[in-house]
Amino acid sequence: MITNLLSVLRRNFLVVTATFLASICVGFGYLLVVRPTYTATAQSFVSISSAANVSDLAQGNVYLQQIVRSYANVADSPLVLNEVRSELGLKEPVGKLQSAVQASVPLNTVILTISANQASPTEAAALANKVSDVLAAKVVSLTGDDQNSQAPVKISVIERATPPTEASSPKGALVLGLSAFIGLALGAILSIARATIDTKIRSIGQLTSISTAPLLGSILFDRTLRAQRAIVPSPSSSPVAESIKNLRTNLRYVDIEHSNKSIVVTSSVPSEGKSFTAVNLAIAFAAAGQRTLLVDADLRRPSVAAYLGLDGSVGLTDLLAQESELSNLLQEWGQLGLHVLPAGETPPNPSELLESERMRELMSQFARVYDVVIYDVPPLLAVTDAAIIAANASGAILIAGFGQVRTQQVRASLAHLEVVRARLLGVVATMVPPTNNEYGYAYYGYEAEHRAAISPAPEPA
């Protein structure tokens, strides 16, 4: 679960970063807009005027602890604050001063603490000191029996307030820290919500959680391949060419008890890169010295001939209609001995032709003549053609394009293959962003723009 969460956050890095920065900006804005408040504190000691003996002193101390809390209530009363307001020349009403002055008494003490909040440090200190002074005078007048008698209780200021050097609120570090936390939390929530709503495949973990079939490889999104028509024969040991070779090697060792001579390459929906994979996989097998045939069995939107710069006017449809011999329709590409059978003209009944006995005979014939036969077929969810051919082939490879196909579509494709009892060799991830390299082994590049990585012609499937 934690791995999946980290994968979601990594895929939504820009969202998390944007919310984090936005929240920090809001925090800075708050600090700039809100006026700072300064708090100054003065302390007074409450005592009895005289005590005849120790017993009187003990009783007086208990009495003081009880009465000092009443003095705390007197500190912010109009009786005190009206005089404070007059002596300091303040314009604020008494009601506002009451919210600016707080009096408190620590438990089991006779210490009275006066705190004052103001927009200015000096004003806060002056207000706290003045409240302490006026309160001390009012206590004398309230507790004395007459003007000539001594008050039994007196208040002595033991610590006068000084102007604070820092604002008590808002606290910059706290505001920015809280802003950062809210930004990250909001980014995480948005990322999870987006991942829940957006069901497109965007991670290797998503793909492997859908299917129990082996992951045969992953194709990175690589814009540098746009001008290339074929990648495997490249003399350089680029990640692109090496990864196609790795895919070829993986196919040799998938379920070695069964023959993998005829391989169907399909996808769930168009624009996932199945033709790219089929063409370059066929080139890889031919480069390894195996007699390889690449068949464009996408009779609705063929693309193999355009990829390889071959004549696509004749091909499989002519062979199915028995209008020409195989030897007249095969075309050789490059110096590797790769044979290519284009789709030919688009027929009015592709499904019927591909499901015919003639097609099954041809597939058997191809398997006898060649070491490996690669079929580029339409997407599984578009038409039934792919399932028909996959049922008669040695196995099928399901392409999953990151950001192109949804999880439910992949599940539906797997179900289609299962219904026709086609043998699924594995899945191949395509259009994988470089930041999504979760497994760290050799990846191969893929250019998805305009549907084709290695050809200027559009990739229809």
TrEMBL record:
Entry membrane topology: Multi-pass membrane protein
TM ranges: 12-33, 173-193
Catalysed reaction equations from the record: L-tyrosyl-[protein] + ATP = O-phospho-L-tyrosyl-[protein] + ADP + H(+)
The keyword Membrane appears for this protein: yes
Family annotation (InterPro entries): Bact_polysacc_biosynth/exp, LPS_length_determ_N, P-loop_NTPase, Wzc-like_C, YlxH/NBP35
Record flagged with keyword Kinase: yes
Main location: membrane
Signal sequence bounds: none
Domain Polysaccharide chain length determinant N-terminal, first and last residues per copy: 3-88
Pfam short name (any one): Wzz
Listed EC numbers: 2.7.10.2
Stated name of the protein: non-specific protein-tyrosine kinase
Organism name: Amnibacterium kyonggiense
